[in-house]
Amino acid sequence: MPIEQEIGATGRVIQAVGALLGLMPALALLFGLVEIPPSLADLIRVLSFFITVGVILGIILLRAPIRRMPGGRAALLMIAAVLLGSVAATSYWIFAERHLIAVKRGDTTEYFVVPLNPSPRIRKAVEPFDGDYLQAIYVSAQRENLRRWMEQESVGASVLMLVLLVLANVLLVSGVVGGAWKVAGSMRKAPKDG
Q1: Dmax of the chain from CA atoms?
Q2: Which position among 62, 126, 153, 194 has the lowest Cβ density within 10 Å, counted as fewest Cβ atoms?
Q3: Burial 82-106 (b: 16+ CB within 10 A, else e)
Q4: Rg (Cα) of the chain, in Å, rounded?
Q5: 71-74 long-range CB contacts below 8 Å, 24 or more apart?
Q6: What 3-state class would DSSP assign to 103?
Q7: Cross-strand bridge partners of residue 112
Q8: Angle at CA 108, nearest 5°, toward 33 and 39?
Q9: Helix, strand or coil, per DSSP, at residue 38
């Protein structure tokens, strides 16, 4: 089979896979595979998967400009994307370390997000535990109220974690995949130049 036909066939497979991936969220909701509303962990998993696929498809669509880009500029962009993605990933990890609390209940784990600016009622509930949210959630007499209050007030911190994670994902994937695409294009041109 000539290379043009192989590339065409590969393109049709990518289009079919893309169409199927586009249907997945609707099918998951239809068949009850995704909780409504989803937990933060579920939301992060779904977003991470689809953003990664979107970035890869975007790079495939930008293949011609990527191939034409000078190698030095492509290398700088790749390095910058990977470095900025690493900073975003590290920032997410540091922030999540301080604001994400995992509470085990038997075989399940519940996640609670410490608000950016906890209300006086939350601060008062964790004050007897020296600000230790995990201990307060486990043993405080107000633990059920504390859980509910944290869920109500955690929107800002949850959004910030999602933004940092999405930014890290986009930058790291685009840097690595875009760089790999440029290298593959350069390697393909090399025999013709020589």
Answers
A1: 76
A2: 194
A3: bebbeebbebbeebbeebbbeeeee
A4: 23
A5: 71/182, 71/186, 74/178, 74/179, 74/182
A6: strand
A7: 101
A8: 45
A9: coil
